[in-house]
Amino acid sequence: MSQLDELYREVILDHYRNPRRRGTLSGNHLHAEGNNPSCGDEFALDLVVENGVITDAAMQGQGCSISQASGSMMMDAIVGRSVDEVEDLMRKFKVMMTIEDGDDPLDPDRPGSVLGDLEALQGVRKFPVRIKCADLAWATLEDALAQAGR
Amino acid sequence: MSQLDELYREVILDHYRNPRRRGTLSGNHLHAEGNNPSCGDEFALDLVVENGVITDAAMQGQGCSISQASGSMMMDAIVGRSVDEVEDLMRKFKVMMTIEDGDDPLDPDRPGSVLGDLEALQGVRKFPVRIKCADLAWATLEDALAQAGR
Amino acid sequence: MSELGHLRADFPILRREINGAPLVYLDSAATTQKPQPVLDAMDEYYANHNANVHRGAHTLAAEATERYEDARSRIASFVDTASAQIAFTRGATAAINVIAYGWGLNHLREGDRIVVSVSEHHANLVPWQMISRYTGAELIYLELDDEFIIDTSNLEAVIDDRVRIVAFGGMSNVTGALGPVDALVDAAHSVGAITVLDGAQLVPHAPVSADDLGVDYMVFSAHKMLGPTGIGALWGKPERLEELEPLEGGGEMINIVERYHSTWAPVPHKFEAGTPPIAEAIGFGAAVDYLGRVGMEAVAAHEREITAYALERLSEVPDLTIYGPKDVTKRGGAVSFSLGDIHPHDLATIVDQDGVAIRAGHHCARPLMQYLQVPATARASFYLYNLREEVDVLVGALMKARKVFGLG
Amino acid sequence: MSELGHLRADFPILRREINGAPLVYLDSAATTQKPQPVLDAMDEYYANHNANVHRGAHTLAAEATERYEDARSRIASFVDTASAQIAFTRGATAAINVIAYGWGLNHLREGDRIVVSVSEHHANLVPWQMISRYTGAELIYLELDDEFIIDTSNLEAVIDDRVRIVAFGGMSNVTGALGPVDALVDAAHSVGAITVLDGAQLVPHAPVSADDLGVDYMVFSAHKMLGPTGIGALWGKPERLEELEPLEGGGEMINIVERYHSTWAPVPHKFEAGTPPIAEAIGFGAAVDYLGRVGMEAVAAHEREITAYALERLSEVPDLTIYGPKDVTKRGGAVSFSLGDIHPHDLATIVDQDGVAIRAGHHCARPLMQYLQVPATARASFYLYNLREEVDVLVGALMKARKVFGLG
Ligand SMILES: Cc1ncc(COP(=O)(O)O)c(C=O)c1O
Ligand SMILES: Cc1ncc(COP(=O)(O)O)c(C=O)c1O
Q1: Contacts of residue C57 in chain B, CB cutoff 8 Å?
Q2: Residue C245 CA to its chain's centroid (Å)
């Protein structure tokens, strides 16, 4: 696979074109916004956390396929999970985006270790300037969870 | 004569140490001030012009030997002269300070052509950054005469 | 067109390969590449004459000052004005801030209005927002016509006698549209307002006679015209420079400093606080010399030709939308576009794999993006060293992008 | 001392002859000479990586951004701080203006006081005069003690609770006196005032740990520490940088720009409007690398030794008066003096005939000149490339000056 095809895998383009949980939540929820001023990517997140579990979420935003697909895949990955699990996921995602070629980002001994679709974002590592695109949704999630006061 | 000795001729050091007409005038007179911000030289001039003749003058200021000697020699040269003669002198002085080596600044056909002591300032031309020192008094004189409304 | 092709040898970076392909540099609106003579001029200065300017009686100081002031006079000639009308600043942005603060803080008050266009670069927008906040003067926008040019059809409605400043760009860095200088100058002057021309994208690309433009102030940046980073210029009509208070205080810009009060040096020095960008001024001088040798008419003609070719070739790419005038007499060589639903950022990444450097984003013109109702655009921009064949490489890479995104 | 002598080969300009004699460059307080690695770093950047930073997805833009940010982090390490605490400016003067305007316009009002010392460089004086005029805050002066050091014997009388800012120099560019940092920081903080350290003459000459100094803001200039012109740095405590409004508006320094309102990028970017001095940052990075390799302890020791030697040799010259501390632990390597009734400007011209570059004038410190009751001084200043023998050449030239002026 060429580097480009590795970056723009089918699943990424699918999430870009058919983002999951796009919209807003009504009722009581957390809200956080993030953007990359240098490229204009924007991401916003509505989140409901009940008894330590993320029970609902919705995303808004605009930007490149990487930033929006990363957000959409994140939605799939977090709803229904406990905040603990999600924080673990955030850590794993960070590790995946920073490690060097050859290392294995997926530690099978940790609970919830499978990044699933998100692994498709591994190709971004070959494009260092695009890493911040993939990170945007996750940084916004971190902000939202910080508001949860944990 | 070395370039330095040509710059710091006896007559220049004499005017520097014994400036002519240092002080201020009382009574009705013109006043102008000038300075070179880059080196801090300052020069100020009181001038009485009666019926087109400079009848009295006094100078104040501080600065290098060239700026102060040029001012002092200028005092000697202008008091008692008509404004016309002085303007001619100003022109000649300017010519002397700008011409290239070898040219003759002193046109013997013009009235009042002899620059006298002022010729000692010719050595300054070899030191281009010092020309503005020699010019300071004369630029101030020009300002003062401009006020005379001619 | 290719008669400027031989100049490419002067630009060391154009020999680079990117991702295994020859560099195709189409981002000159962001910053231009530098020819060897510009680098040599700065090195020669540092290696032989470096000293602080306007400050010393020693030989190096005199040599440095002479070269610095000589650069000023060559840049002045380049825009057909007098040396005393050119003040060096850090860049175009810094120069606009000098005007906004220096004029604004001292002349604007509540009830006054500042007019800008919706297509301005942030450099010609944010400083006016700041001054609006500090003074209470109101910011008013000019919109665009259907060719993306500042709309002058109803100027009297916007530029009334509350308006004190009209600030606008000579050429949009996004759409390439030329600013309607005459119409805006007439409208502004008819109500006694001053005009500020952002020349950052104009001066590098066309012969400019500052004194003839009719504007009161103009700014431009060296790095967008073959010169180094770290320097730009503020130009003004003599009486406008006189009435402009300096923004920054410090050494060099003063006449007399007393404990509680100071007076300023004559223009242009009152705008040059502290040690100026000396080597950069010398590099800037070498850049305008280089442009002068090529001839700005030739530069403009070359750009017109390559832009026409690019507009033609790009319009062959399916699903491609161009944001900007189609008529090359109304525009310069910055060409913004989008391609289907491919985000500009993705486009830039994909064509970069073929060595093509284009820019993607809001191009420091977010209000314009909102006006165009796009989050971002891709932009190719041309300069004297670009070749027709480079447009072909770009178009090929865009076709590849269509494939990657499954657009067929 | 001469163990740094081998470095001279790195400085191309030191091979120059002036008026037939080898250059003896004793004007480093005005600007320093540049070693080859600094020039090479900038050339390499322009020849291989030049692009605008923080703006593009293409390879060159990424390379340029990486180098620019890498330079920032090396400069941060050099003053022992975090990258985010270093903002690039045009120079020390520009950085002080950022503080004066950004803090002053937003926090000062009538009744407030700004304290400076009488020995400040105009860069740390004129901006405060301007802000005093714009805000109505009053400017108050600290005087000097009989060693020419800022007098701290009666600080409580000056620094009372009306004082909001205390701005002072780390080392006087005229007298060489070190600033009493601890005493001034304590006095300022005891009344809740912020401190601004003009580090233009301190950072180049001694190991500095910004975080340890206790001051709130610090500024310095690249060209005074082997780096290029056109760049300097603003340092601040994190919370102070947060509370500081940017002075200049434009591209790069923004977060979101709406038509009538904008938000700023995080520190340090909010202070970097427009295209920054990119090549200059890279050159600045190379300069601190060079200084780091030499070691700032070694630089300081060398300067202390040569300054001690200069003070000793100069005191042998009849009719010579030194303005500055005699104790080398209380001073740096800027040595101001006068010689009989020879005006400093004349002195500079005379020693220049022997290749010696010294500076003469008010050194951008006119209030200090009035305090010293001299119109001007001559100044020799030293850096790592100076030799003991160069002091001898200076002294020989001064003896010649005595002859020219008939002082015997
Ligand atoms: C003590 C001091 N502060 C500030 C400055 C200003 O530095 P710059 O001219 O690089 O802005 C200087 C240098 O002239 C200086 O010596
Ligand atoms: C139209 C326009 N104005 C102003 C600027 C700002 O120029 P600089 O970044 O050199 O200050 C730019 C460049 O980014 C521009 O394109």
Answers
A1: 39, 129-130
A2: 23
Cβ contact (<8 Å) for C360 and A39?
A: yes
The answer to whether B122 and B96 have CB atoms below 8 angstroms apart is yes
3-state secondary structure of C276: coil
Mutate: best of A6, A12, A65, partner C, most C CBs <10 A = A65
CB A74 within 8 A of CB A118: yes
Q: Are D334 and D121 in contact (CB under 8 A)?
A: no
- Partners of C279 in beta bridges: none
D81 touches C: beta carbon within 8 Å: no
Say how far apart CA C325 and CA A94 lie, in whole Å: 44
Contacting residues of C for A64, CB less than 8 Å apart: 343-346
For C68, list phi and psi in degrees, rounded to 5: -65, -45
Strand segments, DSSP code E, in A6-129 are 30-36, 41-50, 53-62
SS3 C364: coil
Q: Which residue of C has its CA nearest to B35?
A: C255
Query: Which residue has a Cα nearest atom 15 of ligand 2?
Result: C200
Between A35, A39, A130, which is nearest D255 by CB? Answer: A35
Do D166 and D184 contact (CB within 8 A), yes or no?
yes
Q: E strand or H helix at D250, and its extent?
A: none
Supply the ipTM of this predicted assembly.
0.94
CATH 3.40.640.10-classified regions of chain D: 49-292
Which helix (H) or strand (E) segment holds residue D143: the answer is none
Q: Which amino acid is at A18?
A: N
Residues C128 and C248 sit within 8 Å (Cβ to Cβ): no
Ligand 1 atom nearest to D224, measured from its CA? 10
Task: Calculate the average pLDDT of chain D.
Answer: 97
Tell whether D122 is within 8 A of chain B (Cβ). no
Average pLDDT of the residues in B108-134: 77
Report which DSSP code applies to B48.
Answer: E
Give the CATH number of domain A3-147. Answer: 3.90.1010.10
Atom of ligand 1 nearest to the CA of D170: 1
H-helix or E-strand containing B16? helix B10-17
The reply to whether residue C248 touches residue D94, judged by beta carbons under 8 angstroms, is yes
In this complex, whether A and B touch, counting 3 or more CB pairs under 8 angstroms, is no
What digits encode the pLDDT tens for the residues B14-63? 999 999 999 999 999 999 999 887 777 899 999 999 999 999 999 999 99
| CATH number, domain D5-28+295-404, options 3.90.1150.10, 3.30.365.10, 3.40.50.2000, 1.10.287.110 | 3.90.1150.10
Q: Which of A3, A65, A127 sits opposite C343 (nearest CB)?
A: A65
pTM score above 0.80: yes
Give ranges for CATH 3.90.1150.10 in chain C: 5-28+295-404
Question: What are the beta bridge partners of residue D196?
Answer: D167, D217
